[in-house]
Amino acid sequence: MRTAIQESRELLQKLPRTRLGFFPTPLQRLDRLSEQLGVNLYIKRDDFTGISLFGGNKVRKLEYLLGQAVADGATHAITYGATQSNHAMETAAACRRLGIQPILYLTAVVPPKPEELRSNLLLDHILGAEIHIVPIEPGETEADAEARSFAMGTARAAELNANDQVCVDIPMGGANALGSVGFAAAMVELQEQCETMGGLRFSRIYHSTGTGGTMAGLHAGRAMLGLETQIVSVSASRKDESSYLDKVHRLCRDALALIGSDAMPDRGAMHLNLTQWQPGYEQPSEASTEAIRLLARTEGLFVDPVYTGKALAGLLADVDSGEIRKGENVLFWHTGGATALFAEPEITGSMF
Ligand SMILES: Cc1ncc(COP(=O)(O)O)c(C=O)c1O
After folding, report:
1. Does 238 share its domain with 336?
2. Do residue 123 and residue 242 come from a single domain?
3. Nearest to 214 by CA among 185, 175, 246, 170
4. Distance between CA 121 and CA 124 in Å, rounded?
5. pTM, whole model, 2 decimals?
6. Which of 50, 86, 129, 328 is the right S-S partner for 102, CB 3.0 to 4.6 Å?
């Protein structure tokens, strides 16, 4: 009889995919931190996805999104994010690998200093991406500026397409159904690793959530594999829980439909943790700074102040409160983003 893992693999193989990263990423036990916390803590090293030294969760999504772009004959790809967006940088790098011209519309959540470019924005320049900085104008919200960036990107794509180019749109965070397929595949990859590690089972998986594509994909994989694991999605920004879960549930359903799976995602099993996003997106918190220091000083590993530090802080808070019981098998899914350790001081805070 075929297992759920085999069936899922076969379905996933039918979608166009371009190989960009290094998979499977390592699954490791954090021995020293486990001992300190009294839980059996593992880490999934998606900071190691590639394609360069600066990996992260977006590479999994881009294998499918750019796989489709290549199949469509793309010459250019446009995407969006904040000026220090990991997604934008990883998209630009992946486009270069595939000979596609990257175009970025970047909202200046933290206004960059042109004479002192840092972190992902510096890498975007080294990659030679076509970069459009979209400031947040007085009286505008971040969402207003983002909406303007989408309109500018749509106009640029129309211009290129009218000139015999093929310009594809990669959504912010790679968060559409096709991008989410990358994380359904990641869940299958994890399950295969667990099987080779003596049938290891996690009661909970903690990860950082932003645009929701990673969360949708993880839940799609969970549904396909029939797992009971609780997925705790720790938000990096303020969100309205109900509309966010509706969006993620829809994405998850659409990803499963693309895969051709008849598994049904369970909206009731979707857990959005809103305890860590404050004081705001790209703003450090005491708890995330503490989490960054703790992982570095026990394990020699790095999480970042914007996403993974806050997700790890969420996990640590649940250990402290007793929500995670002693001896539980818990996975921290490291989604990358370490370049933020070298971003503007408004983003990093004081980390030591
Ligand atoms: C390092 C890192 N972790 C987590 C996330 C959240 O992923 P998603 O946008 O798929 O929710 C992002 C992207 O926004 C990220 O860059």
Report:
1. yes
2. no
3. 175
4. 5
5. 0.97
6. 129
